[in-house]
């Protein structure tokens, strides 16, 4: 069943809420993801240079005499040039240094960077197969190993998660194990000392490929460059190299690209005003999208699915996306689903971020995670069936949560929590305060209350941390589950199974409704501030129904 149908069925189960269409300029998750590789049709400008798998690097790079490799084109083309890639597979690792270039697929032709090569010469070795003389080596050290148990990227679930080697049989990724004695069908192992590759599935008559390159493309201070309509797959990226594709520069644009089946992160960004629009991040080893020290980035309309395939530890890094130490971010209309870890994660001094109209669905971690940061607006998001909390605000201040819908997440639907970590950045108060929770729709099913607000250190009361109003609490059947956990340790705390008696102090206009009458409960909410209204595609001051548009 398509995800849209699943989400609509979830909403229908709690009331037949009529879909609301946002203004045309407001992007939503229903259209997330790129055009399929081979269908984009970017115009080819006069003066463009050309590359083709059938070309020749001794040619002049014209359409009639294209170069053979992207590396040759990048070196030969002048700054500001457009390089058009004809359809086919490019087994390359390319760096663009200090030069503005546009790399784009030829109209309606499928272009892939691929880090693998075919492997033949297999011999039977007992119940498995062996390929001798294997000399490919990748850095498989764990730079986090000395950081203490809480910061290890590699844990017991997959102790070789950081080994970047990859093998594919008929396009299907095989899982790496630590040695020959663990190899069974669907797995492989590499013995660097013996120079041997072991495979558990019969390679006879099948397409067996192994990764021989670590990195696909590095835009290194290539300010203003763009990558349009290109696929990147199967690169063995070590932890120290961050991502198979790196965009480290200002004013970069990645659009209608695919980043798939890499050993670490598909794409890593660092710089100002980077646009990541309508891309897919699929089955990457640790993360789909990674970002650090990126100011004013716009991440919109992307699909992030099946990432952390290698089963790295969920903390400190995993899932669909994680961006740290950045400001002015806009995460709009993305669909992050079925990742091992959080769906969307902002952490470590992120400020002034807008997280709007995203879907976080069936991730094993939190749906949307905002941590050790400040001044965030979470508006119109849909978080459903995630393994942990739907919306999680951890040690962050001045976070505004408006018109979100959180359903059936594994713990709480909204969890606002303070801890004991020291304040490292004087401009980023880590103590939770100034959190607004308005017009949200919450349905339970998890192990925690629908909303939880508490300071684990006991320094602050819930009232000092957050305010709640106009939220809708949907109760399933005769359940007496906890609606609100509102901790004041000086008075012994408090967990409430009903809004009765607490509305004056905690949730003045909140509504508690049974699932069968949920439609009637989603009546007019708090008047929308202008910025919230803008992200919802409506007018300031409107009293829209609660929850996210979908």
Automatic annotation (TrEMBL):
Residues 252-374 form the Right handed beta helix domain. It comes from the Bacteria. It is found in: Secreted. Residues 54-93 form the DUF1565 domain. Keywords: Secreted, Signal. Residues 1-24 form the signal peptide. It holds the Pfam family DUF1565. InterPro entries: Beta_helix, DUF1565, Pectin_lyas_fold, Pectin_lyase_fold/virulence, Polysaccharide_Lyase_9. This is Right handed beta helix domain-containing protein. It comes from Microbispora amethystogenes. The lineage of its organism: Bacteria, Bacillati, Actinomycetota, Actinomycetes, Streptosporangiales.
């Amino acid at each position: 069943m398509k995800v849209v149908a699943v989400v609509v069925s979830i909403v229908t189960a709690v009331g037949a809420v009529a879909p609301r269409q946002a203004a045309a300029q407001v992007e939503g998750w229903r259209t997330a993801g790129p055009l399929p590789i081979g269908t984009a049709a970017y115009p080819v400008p006069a003066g463009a240079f050309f590359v083709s798998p059938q070309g020749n690097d001794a040619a002049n790079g014209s359409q009639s005499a294209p170069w053979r490799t992207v590396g040759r084109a990048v070196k030969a083309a002048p700054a500001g040039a457009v390089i058009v890639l004809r359809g086919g597979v490019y087994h390359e690792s390319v760096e663009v240094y200090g030069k503005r270039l546009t790399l784009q697929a030829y109209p309606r032709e499928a272009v892939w960077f691929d880090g693998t090569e075919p492997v033949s010469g297999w011999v039977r070795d007992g119940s498995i197969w062996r390929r001798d003389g294997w000399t490919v080596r990748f850095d498989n050290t764990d730079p986090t190993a000395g950081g203490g148990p809480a910061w290890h990227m590699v844990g017991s679930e997959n102790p070789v998660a950081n080994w970047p080697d990859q093998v594919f049989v008929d396009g299907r990724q095989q899982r790496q194990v630590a040695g020959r004695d663990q190899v069974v069908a669907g797995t492989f192992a590499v013995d660097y000392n013996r120079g041997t590759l072991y495979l558990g599935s019969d390679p006879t008559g099948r397409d067996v490929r192994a990764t021989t390159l670590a990195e696909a493309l590095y835009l290194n201070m290539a300010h203003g460059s763009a990558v349009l309509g290109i696929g990147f797959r199967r690169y063995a990226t070590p932890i120290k190299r961050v991502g198979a594709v790196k965009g480290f520069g200002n004013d970069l644009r990645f659009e209608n690209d695919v980043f798939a089946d890499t050993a670490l992160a598909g794409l890593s960004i660092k710089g100002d005003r980077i646009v990541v629009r309508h891309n897919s991040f699929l089955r990457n080893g640790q993360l789909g999208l990674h970002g650090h020290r990126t100011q004013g980035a716009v991440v919109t309309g992307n699909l992030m699915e099946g990432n952390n395939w290698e089963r790295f530890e969920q903390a400190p890094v995993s899932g669909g996306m994680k961006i740290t130490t950045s400001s002015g971010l806009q995460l709009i209309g993305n669909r992050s689903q079925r990742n091992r870890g959080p769906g969307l994660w902002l952490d470590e001094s992120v400020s002034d971020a807008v997280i709007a109209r995203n879907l976080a669905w069936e991730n094993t971690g939190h749906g949307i995670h905002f941590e050790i940061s400040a001044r965030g607006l979470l508006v119109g998001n849909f978080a459903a069936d995630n393994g942990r909390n739907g919306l999680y605000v951890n040690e962050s201040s001045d976070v505004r949560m408006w018109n979100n819908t959180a359903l059936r997440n594994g713990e709480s639907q909204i969890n606002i929590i303070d801890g004991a970590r020291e304040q490292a950045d004087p401009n980023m108060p880590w103590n939770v305060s100034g959190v607004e929770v308005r017009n949200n729709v919450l349905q339970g099913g998890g192990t925690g209350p629908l909303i939880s607000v508490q300071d684990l250190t006991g320094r602050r009361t819930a009232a000092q941390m957050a305010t709640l109003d106009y939220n809708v609490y949907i109760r399933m059947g005769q359940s007496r589950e906890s609606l609100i956990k509102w901790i004041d340790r000086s008075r012994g705390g408090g967990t409430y199974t009903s809004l009765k008696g607490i509305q004056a102090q905690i949730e003045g206009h909140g509504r508690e409704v049974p699932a069968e009458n949920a439609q009637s409960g989603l009546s007019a909410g708090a008047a929308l501030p202008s910025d919230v209204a803008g992200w919802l595609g409506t007018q300031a001051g409107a009293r829209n129904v609660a929850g996210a548009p979908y």
